[in-house]
Amino acid sequence: MSSETSPVDLGVISRIDALAAVLPPLEGAYVVDLGCGEGQVARELAARGARVCGYDPFIDEAADTWTPHGAGAFRLRRGRAETTPEPDGCADAVLFVYSLHHVPRAQLGAALGEACRLLKPTGRLCVVEPVAAGPMQYVSAPYHDETVVRDDAQAALVTFAAPAFATETRFSFAERTIFADFSSFAQRAMQGARFNDYSAEQVNSPQIKQRFDEMAAKTGGVFDQPVRINLFNAMRGAH
What we know:
Elements: E1 2-3, E2 8-12, H1 15-22, E3 30-34, H2 40-47, E4 51-56, E5 67-69, E6 72-78, E7 91-97, H3 108-118, E8 119-130, H4 135-140, H5 147-161, E9 165-178, H6 182-191, H7 200-203, H8 206-219, E10 222-235
Parallel strand pairs: 1-9, 2-9, 3-4, 3-7, 4-6, 7-8
Antiparallel strand pairs: 5-6, 8-10, 9-10
């Protein structure tokens, strides 16, 4: 399998714009978003013309209905990445957006195998993962250090995804967040507590505030999160 030796740098950009930049035209495409969270990516891609079905263990079952949105539509379903009710070869693209590292290590192979099962022979697997570096990593590490699980996710791509595809292209970008003060940082951090194991007490501790103040003084409150994209193209043997 061939791959880029150095990532293509997309600059400072949102994850949605990064997806739009690396994926083929989305209009009319069927996309499966594994680990979709609250469905932000599903909604944004639907607005650009895709039909997006998102799966997440935390989704309310009542959300399992197709909703027109912009030029496309989205549906959010409760489910895990390792197994979905989708038919074989249904998807033009399968996404893991900031989600693969949330899959337990023992299930990473099954989750990536499921992604391969869902893809059309010429489909694409797109994995967007934050790098364990940058201002956010420094501030949040004492209560939420994901270095190990993010490394596990990257290793799983080498072991389970790369052998299944003809080519791989790698991209990098920075996703920018600007915090006016520590309160705004803590509020944003707690939005992720539903999907992670930490508490408001941990986020609001004096140690975290000290780290935030230190980093904000250096960056002016601009926190750029480095992100990598692994885009796998066309299953091996596809015609």
